User: Which sequence fits this backbone?
C-alpha cells in the first residue's frame, strides 16, 4: 500500500497557499471598489481551511523520501485538486458561472491552456480577471518545477534525457524540487516583471499589463478581452511575441546564464530546433499571406508573427481570426499546435525535443533497412540516444495520438461536429487554447459546448499538461499494489 | 553502384503483361459494340512495345540474386511505372481525361485507393469501367505478394514479425515471390469468383458483378456508378461486407487452410483484433444512429455495417452520404480509416497489428515508469517482441503521422480548405478512397481539385501503399552509394 500521507500533506499545503493568494484579487477588487469582493474572501476562507485540514490530518508524514508512486500521485492530485478550489471564486462570485464552467476555467488556467468559457470579459471585475491570470502564472511555474524536478526521475515521455542537466541531486526529490523551484521562480518573476513593464511601455494600462504579463510568461493565453489581443497597439504584438518566445525556452538555461554561463543556452539543440522551426513557420505564413491577402507588408508580417508564435508556443492569444485565412494557414495552425516549445519551459504539447528524437529514429530506421548489417543509433546533441529514452519518447507520441483520437470520438459522441471535436481534443490535450471552426476557433468561445464536453476537455487538459503517462500510470492495478 | 538491369527487366515484363491485359477491356468494348475500342488497342500496343523494349534492353541481367537495394527499387518502380502506362486508356480513349486525371485514376486503381476523378461513370463504356476494376484487382494481389515476399525481408515497418510465416525460403527473393504469388493468386481468384457469383445472386447484372467483385476483393472501391453502392439492393450491402472482410484477412491463412489447416487463421491475433475492433465500430455506429436517426432498425444496422466496413478496410464504397450523420460518425469515419485491416491482405493504412504492437509498447512503458527496476517487454501472440520490430513499427507510425502532416500542409498550400486537405492527405496515404467534406467526401469527387493537388495525392497513394519507408529509403544518398 502507498502511504498517502506525504501526498495529502503537500497537496494540503498547496491548497492552503492557493487560498492565501485569493486574497490578492480580493484586495484588488476592494481597491477598484468592485462590489463583489466578499466572494473572494469566502473562497479564500474555504480554501485555506480545507487545505489546512488536509495538511494537518496528514502532518505525521515523513517527507524525507517521496517514492515514485507518491511522486506520481502528488503531481496528478495537485493539478486535480487545485482547480477544484481555484474554481470557487468563479462559482461564488463573478461571473456567477455554473460549477462546470468554473472548474473548466480553473483547469484551463492551471494547465496554462487558455480556453475560456467566459464571455464579455470586459465587464468582469478586475479581481476575477486577475485570478484567471494568477492561476495561469502559478500553473506555468509549477509545471517547470515538475518538469525539471520530477519528470526526469519519473522517466516520463523521455524526459530522463534531461536528467543530468543543471540539478544533480537525484534521489532526494523534495530538496531538489525546492532548490529548482527557488531559482526558477526568481527568473520567472524577473521575466514577468520585464514583460509587464514592456506592455505598459507600448500602451497597455497598468492592470492589463499585469494580467497579460502573467498569462504571456505562462504561455497561457487568458486575455482580458473577448477579442484577445485585437484591440491592442501593433507594438504590443511584437512585445508579446518576444516574451512568448522567451517563455518557450528551457528556464534552466536562464538559471545557468544568471550563474555566469550563457553557453548552455546557445548550445542547447532543442533551442536551435525551436528557433529554426519558428522562423520557418513565421516566414512561410507571412509569404503565403503576402501573396494572398490585400494588406500591407508590415501587417502581414506582424499578424503572422504574433499568431504563429501564439499557437506554436501554446499560448493561444489571437490578434485576428486566422480561421478565415484559408486552407494552408488553418492546416498549419492546427498542426503547429501539436509541436510546442522546449522541455523545461511553460510550453505544453509534444515538444520540439521529441520531434527531434522521433525524426532521428525514423532516419536511423531508414538507414537500417537499406543496410541491415549496420548499427544505426539515433543521436541527440551529438550523443547516442539510449533505447530506454527512445522507447519512452515513442510511447509518449503513440499515447498522445491515441488519446487525441479517443478524445475526439468522445467529443463527437457528445454532439460536437467533426472539426470542433478533433481540434477541440487537440487544443485541450496540447494545452493551446483556441480550436478550429466557428464554435471554438480564435473568435469563438467554449461556453456553448455541452457540460459533458467541458468535463472531457478538462480531463484532456490535465492529462496533456502532465505528459499523459504520468496520469495513465495511476489507472493500472500494479501501481496500487506496489 | 546498383545494377539496375534486373529491376528494369522485371518492370519491363510487368509493363508488357499490363499491356496484354488491356486486350481484355478491348475485347469487352468490342463485344458491347462500343465505338471507342481502338484506343485500348493503341494503349495495349504502346504498353507492350515499351515493356518489351525495357525487358530486352536489360535481358542480360542475373535474376538469381536480387539484393536489398534492387528489391526496394523494384517495388517502388513497379507501382510508379505501371500507372504511367495504365493511364493511357483513360487519356487516349474514354473519358478523354487529361493525363493528370488519367494518371491519378490509374494510381488510385493500382494502389487500391479508389478515389476517382471521373464523373458520370454510368456513361463510360464497359471497357473503361472494367479497366478501372482490373487495375485495382492487380494492385490488390500485387501488394499481397510484395507484403509477404518482400516486406519481411526488407524489414519495413515491422513486417519482419511475419518473416517466419508460411513461406520460409528466405534469401531467395524471387523464387519465394513466385511461390507466394502462385498460391495467393489461386485463392484470390477463387474469392473473386465467389464474390461475383454472390453479387449476381443478389441482383447485380453480370457486368456490374464482375467489376465490383474485382474492386471488392482488392478493397479498392472503384464503383461503376457516381453514387457508388447507393443504387444496389439491400442484400448487396451484406454481400459486399462479407467479401470486404474476407479481403482484409491475411491471405496466407487461406493458403494454409487450403493445405488442410484452419488453425493458423483462428489463432492469428491480428485476425481477432480486427474482428473485435470491427464489431465494436459497427455496433457503436449502429447504436448511435439508432438513437439519432429516424430510420428503421435494419436500415440503421445495414448502413452502419456496410459503410464502416468499407472505410475500415480502406475499400471506399459508400451506400449513403455518411458525412451528414453528425460529429461522432464523421470523426469515427476519419479515424477508422487510419486503422485498416490485417497485414498480408489487400488492406492498406497503418494496419491492425501495428496498433496491437503500439498499444503493447505504451502499456509496457507505463509499467516501466512505475517499476523502473522491472523489465517489461511488449508481447504479440504471447511472444516477446524484439526491440528491432518495435522500433521499426514505431518509426513507421511516426513516419506516417509526419507524412500526413506534410501532405496536409502541401494540399493546403495548393488551395484546399483545412478539412479537405487533412482528410485528403489521410485518404490518399491510407489508400481509402473518399475524404471528408463536400468536395472529396463520399458524395463528392476528386475532379474539382487543382492538378498539382492530384499529383501530390498520387504520390501519397504510392508512398502509403508501399509502407512509406520502402519509398523514403530511395531518397537517401547512402542507398545509392552502397
Assistant:
Amino acid at each position: 500500500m502507498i502511504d498517502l500521507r506525504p501526498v495529502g500533506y503537500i497537496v494540503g499545503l498547496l491548497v492552503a497557499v492557493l487560498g492565501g493568494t485569493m486574497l490578492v484579487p480580493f484586495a484588488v477588487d476592494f481597491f477598484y471598489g468592485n462590489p463583489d469582493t466578499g466572494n473572494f474572501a469566502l473562497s479564500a476562507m474555504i480554501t485555506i481551511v480545507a487545505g489546512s485540514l488536509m495538511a494537518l490530518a496528514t502532518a505525521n508524514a515523513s517527507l524525507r523520501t517521496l517514492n515514485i508512486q507518491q511522486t506520481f500521485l502528488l503531481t496528478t492530485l495537485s493539478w486535480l485538486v487545485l482547480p477544484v478550489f481555484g474554481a470557487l471564486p468563479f462559482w461564488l462570485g463573478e461571473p456567477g458561472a455554473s460549477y462546470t464552467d468554473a472548474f473548466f476555467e480553473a483547469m484551463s488556467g492551471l494547465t496554462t491552456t487558455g480556453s475560456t468559457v467566459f464571455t464579455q470579459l470586459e465587464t468582469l471585475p478586475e479581481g476575477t480577471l486577475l485570478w484567471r491570470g494568477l492561476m495561469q502564472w502559478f500553473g506555468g511555474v509549477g509545471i517547470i518545477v515538475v518538469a525539471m524536478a520530477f519528470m526526469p526521475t519519473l522517466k516520463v515521455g523521455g524526459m530522463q534525457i534531461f536528467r543530468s542537466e543543471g540539478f544533480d541531486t537525484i534521489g532526494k526529490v523534495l530538496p531538489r524540487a525546492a532548490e529548482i523551484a527557488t531559482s526558477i521562480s526568481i527568473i520567472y518573476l524577473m521575466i514577468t516583471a520585464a514583460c509587464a513593464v514592456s506592455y505598459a511601455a507600448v500602451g497597455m494600462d497598468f492592470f492589463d499589463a499585469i494580467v497579460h504579463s502573467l498569462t504571456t510568461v505562462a504561455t497561457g493565453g487568458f486575455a482580458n478581452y473577448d477579442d484577445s489581443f485585437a484591440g491592442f497597439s501593433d507594438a504590443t504584438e511584437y512585445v508579446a511575441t518576444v516574451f512568448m518566445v522567451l517563455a518557450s525556452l528551457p528556464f534552466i538555461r536562464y538559471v545557468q546564464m544568471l550563474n555566469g554561463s550563457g553557453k548552455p543556452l546557445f548550445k542547447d539543440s532543442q533551442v536551435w530546433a525551436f528557433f529554426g522551426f519558428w522562423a520557418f513557420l513565421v516566414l512561410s505564413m507571412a509569404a503565403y499571406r503576402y501573396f494572398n491577402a490585400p494588406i500591407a507588408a508590415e501587417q502581414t508580417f506582424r499578424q503572422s508573427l504574433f499568431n504563429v508564435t501564439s499557437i506554436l508556443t501554446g499560448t493561444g492569444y489571437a490578434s485576428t481570426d486566422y480561421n478565415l485565412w484559408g486552407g494552408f494557414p488553418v492546416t498549419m495552425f492546427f498542426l503547429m499546435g501539436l509541436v510546442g516549445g522546449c522541455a523545461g519551459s511553460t510550453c505544453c504539447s509534444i515538444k520540439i525535443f521529441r520531434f527531434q528524437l522521433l525524426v532521428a529514429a525514423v532516419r536511423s530506421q531508414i538507414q537500417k533497412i537499406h543496410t541491415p548489417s549496420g548499427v544505426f543509433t539515433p543521436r541527440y546533441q551529438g550523443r547516442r540516444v539510449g533505447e530506454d529514452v527512445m522507447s519512452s519518447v515513442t510511447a509518449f507520441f503513440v499515447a498522445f495520438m491515441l488519446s487525441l483520437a479517443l478524445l475526439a470520438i468522445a467529443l463527437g459522441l457528445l454532439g460536437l461536429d467533426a472539426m470542433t471535436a478533433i481540434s477541440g481534443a487537440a487544443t485541450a490535450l496540447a494545452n493551446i487554447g483556441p480550436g478550429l471552426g466557428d464554435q471554438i476557433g480564435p473568435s469563438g468561445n467554449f461556453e456553448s459546448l455541452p457540460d459533458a464536453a467541458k468535463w472531457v476537455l478538462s480531463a484532456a487538459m490535465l492529462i496533456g499538461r502532465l505528459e499523459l503517462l504520468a496520469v495513465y500510470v495511476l489507472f493500472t492495478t500494479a501501481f496500487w499494489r506496489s
Summary: Confidence is low (pLDDT under 50) at residues 166-171 of chain B. The longest strand of chain B covers residues 379-380. Chain B is about 65% helix and 0% strand.
